[in-house]
Structure formats: C-alpha cells, structure tokens
Design a protein that fits this description.
The protein is an all-alpha fold and 185 residues long. The chain contains nine helices and two strands. Strands 1-2 form a two-stranded parallel ribbon.
C-alpha cells in the first residue's frame, strides 16, 4: 500500500528535482510557483483557524456528527436546560408564582424534594459542566491547543461543551449555589 499516489509523487519530484537531473529554467520557475501557492494556501488555512470563534468551531465539529448523534446531544441539552430552569426558579423563589400563572395542578408541580432528588441523580450520573471555560479567550484556536486538548481528553460535559457546544451537564456554579441553599440543611 503506497502512502502517496502517483500524482503526489510526480508533484514532489517536480518540486524537488534530483541533483543528478538538470532542470530547465521553466521547470524551476513552475516548481517555485507551486511552492509559493502551497505556502499561500497553508497560510490562509492557518489564519482562518486562528480567527475561529466558538460558534464557528462548533459548527465545524457538529458537521462531523451523524444525525442521530446530533439529535441525542440536542435532546440531552434540552433536558439539562429544563432542569437548570427549574433550579433557577427555586433559587429566585419564583417557582410557585410561575406555576400559578401557568395554572399547574398540584400533581403537575415539581416539589423541591423531587427537584433535589433529580439534581442528585443528574450529578451522580453525568457530573457537571464548567461553563466558565468559555471565558478563556481563543480556546478554540491554535494558541490554546494544549489546554483545549487536556479538556477534551478529560471528557465529560465540559469536554462536550468545548468540542460541540452542547450543554450536557448542569452548570457547576448553578449546582453549587443550589446545593448550598437547598441540599445542605
């Protein structure tokens, strides 16, 4: 199995002629132009990568997912955001007024004990997400490659957030606030 195909080998031979073989001026000029074009193309790609923002990075990464994977992440993110919304309502003492406005019956309401149990199960199963990581400037650029790769290697909800932009775990700051107020009694 060859690493390079015949066209690639021919291109390399044209760019780097054998010292034994004499090249003509037009051949040398063609090789110089090809090298300059390759350098320009490489520089353009490097500049584009260096200017990547999180939304651009996530779009590129999400393109690599299958439709099933994307749907699974979106459903998971929706569940997490719903749970976080309920946590915030309880933290802001707004759950009951919101439930009254929506005319929720007692059996439709989520009690604080039920919410605490759900939060404990969620954290035990999936852990939490360090969303503060998004404050690191240029995290998705080559400048922070080592740090980004360390986060991705650790995996979990924070790795998923950095790689694909999906929130698949409860925000750690929200969890700590909720835990201190309701779970340490």
């Amino acid at each position: 199995m060859a690493i390079l195909d015949e066209k690639q080998v021919a291109g390399l031979r044209a760019d780097y002629p054998s010292p034994k073989k004499k090249t003509t001026a037009p051949q040398r000029e063609a090789a110089r132009i090809r090298q300059a074009n390759r350098r320009a193309k490489l520089k353009k790609v490097q500049t584009a990568v260096a200017d990547t923002t999180f939304p651009q990075h996530w779009l590129l990464q999400r393109d690599k997912l299958t439709e099933e994977q994307r749907n699974a992440y979106e459903v998971r993110e929706s569940d997490v955001l719903d749970l976080e919304y309920l946590m915030r309502l309880y933290l802001e003492d707004r759950y009951n007024p919101e439930a009254d406005v929506l005319n929720l019956q007692p059996e439709e309401r989520v009690s604080l004990d039920e919410l605490i149990a759900e939060v404990k199960e969620e954290i035990g199963t999936n852990g939490w997400c360090e969303t503060m990581i998004l404050l690191v400037s240029r995290l998705c650029t080559p400048h922070e490659k080592e740090f980004r790769e360390a986060i991705l290697a650790k995996g979990g909800p924070t790795g998923t957030l950095v790689r694909y932009g999906y929130r698949t775990g409860i925000d750690s700051g929200l969890y700590e606030t909720f835990r201190e107020r309701f779970m340490e009694q």
